[in-house]
């Protein structure tokens, strides 16, 4: 719920900034952010995951991890700043140099946050983590909007990112009880490094596979197409963040506790995937329904964004089936398999997106963003199919059919929600202005998706009744048609 509040605040800020700014500003910051993300990924993945996964963790391990992160933060952050002109030259966008330089402190702030955040997540203190991100999102959002109103342009988005990281870092160190003490011990570093090497490789592969679309869009098409694609991708990404990725935060530490019981591990992973589908797929369907009036409301500078948005909602739905597989492989002690999957996807993505870039170099920005979205969908489908088989069938030893079957009601609910604009058109109903259309489409799609999900998903009804107990004793646990009792 706290993550939902954070994402809700972020969505509202994104709408306001998109209304005030345009694709070029969003594109420049997206191209700079993906460059900084490479540096941050180098820092985060290895030791962060090792702290979460390790059975026995001592203060020496935490001290060693913090010392390594502090040194690495200065080194990697300095390298990112030094390479900023090279990135600007590669993208043929001179303004990227100053934007990348301005964002380079994010690397050091990320390094300072890794160990205390890992400590809180290892202890399952997700309320504390979510409060931190919610507060940082609200404060940075206000700062970004105020600067945009004052005419700061692209620097409003830069300031938003810097304020978000700084406020989050201050809150994190305030609420985390752990403090560094003592020096670096090589033995502790070696203990963590054994696991973190494969995990860091998986993190770099994940970064390449998840950011190849934005990287190649910027390199081949420039900031306008990148801005259109990034806005279209950001909205589905936010919904996946608040739903499936919220479960991803819990998945690694909770699955790690079951790593020696494969049967219980498989059941828990299936439960997490079902919850992710229930919370994510219907909402993505609602976003498809409101996409048209939403883009119209943002203004003519975003013309051509609707189709990429629709396609990237489908991409987000496919992504909902892949988000939990990485933590599952890490929790079961097989990060090398995860690294192999992610690097395969990343290399394949670079090849596919580069081919699209070469073929459509002279096309319009909206067409270019749409082509990248189509390529991303095809790749995501192929790689997710392989990843599910490797993780569920080979690594866990479970049934792929049993893993996927509980999510079918959510697929149906999302598809029916997405069809609401078609339903209104078939009935000859037309609404104006776009804000009213957005509200009506969203309400109808949400009610339709929720009703269908409730009627068809027995697992959901059982879960709700078990959680709420006697307060909802009137909810039947039997199927509405067969009459079979769920329990």
Automatic annotation (TrEMBL):
A Pfam family: Polysacc_synt_3
InterPro entries (alphabetical): Poly_Biosynth_Transport
Key word Oxidoreductase present: no
Transmembrane segments: 28-52, 64-90, 96-120, 129-149, 275-295, 307-326, 338-360, 372-391, 403-424, 436-456
Major location (coarse): membrane
KW Cell membrane (keyword) present: yes
Annotated localization: Cell membrane
Membrane topology, record value: Multi-pass membrane protein
Alphabetical UniProt keywords: Cell membrane, Membrane, Transmembrane, Transmembrane helix
Family membership: Belongs to the polysaccharide synthase family.
Name of protein: Lipopolysaccharide biosynthesis protein
Native organism: Asanoa siamensis
């Amino acid at each position: 719920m706290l993550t939902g509040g954070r994402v809700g605040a972020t969505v509202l800020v994104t709408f306001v900034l998109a209304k005030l700014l345009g694709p070029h500003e969003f594109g420049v910051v997206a191209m700079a952010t993906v460059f900084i993300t490479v540096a941050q990924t180098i820092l985060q993945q290895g030791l962060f995951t090792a702290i979460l996964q390790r059975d026995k963790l001592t203060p020496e391990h935490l001290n060693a991890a913090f010392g390594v992160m502090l040194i690495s933060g200065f080194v990697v952050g300095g390298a990112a700043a030094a390479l900023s002109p090279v990135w600007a030259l590669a993208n043929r966008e001179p303004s990227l140099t100053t934007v990348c330089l301005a964002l380079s402190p994010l690397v050091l702030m990320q390094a300072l946050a890794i160990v205390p955040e890992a400590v809180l997540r290892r202890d399952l203190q997700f309320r504390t983590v979510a409060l931190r991100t919610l507060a940082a999102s609200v404060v940075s959002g206000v700062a970004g909007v105020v600067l945009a109103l004052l005419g700061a342009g692209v620097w409003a988005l830069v300031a938003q990112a810097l304020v978000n990281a700084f406020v989050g870092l201050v809150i994190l160190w305030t609420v985390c009880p752990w403090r560094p003490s003592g020096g670096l011990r090589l033995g502790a570093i070696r203990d963590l490094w054994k696991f973190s090497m494969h995990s860091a490789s998986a993190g770099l592969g994940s970064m390449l596979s998840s950011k190849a679309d934005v990287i190649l869009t910027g390199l081949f098409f420039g900031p306008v197409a990148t801005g259109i694609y990034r806005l279209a991708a950001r909205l589905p990404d936010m919904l996946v963040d608040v739903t499936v990725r919220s479960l991803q935060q819990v998945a690694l530490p909770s699955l790690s506790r079951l790593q020696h019981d494969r049967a219980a591990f498989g059941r828990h992973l299936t439960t997490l995937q079902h919850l992710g589908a229930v919370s994510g797929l219907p909402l993505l369907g609602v976003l498809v329904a409101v996409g048209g009036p939403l883009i119209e409301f943002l203004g003519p500078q975003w013309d051509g964004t609707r189709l990429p948005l629709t396609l990237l909602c489908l991409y987000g739905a496919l992504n909902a089936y892949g988000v939990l597989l990485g933590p599952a492989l890490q929790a079961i002690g097989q990060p090398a398999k995860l690294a192999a999957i992610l690097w395969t996807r990343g290399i394949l993505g670079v090849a596919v997106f580069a081919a699209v870039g070469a073929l459509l170099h002279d096309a319009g920005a909206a067409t270019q963003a749409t082509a990248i979205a189509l390529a991303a969908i095809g790749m995501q489908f192929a790689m997710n199919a392989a990843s599910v088989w490797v993780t569920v069938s080979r690594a866990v030893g479970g049934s792929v059919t049993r893993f996927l079957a509980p999510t079918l009601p959510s697929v149906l609910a999302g598809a029916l929600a997405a069809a609401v604009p078609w339903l209104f058109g078939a009935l000859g109903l037309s609404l104006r202005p776009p804000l009213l259309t957005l509200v009506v489409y969203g309400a109808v799609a949400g009610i339709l998706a929720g009703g269908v999900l409730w009627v068809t998903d027995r697992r959901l009804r059982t879960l709700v009744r078990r959680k709420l107990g006697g307060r909802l004793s009137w909810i039947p646990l039997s199927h509405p048609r067969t009459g079979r009792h769920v329990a």
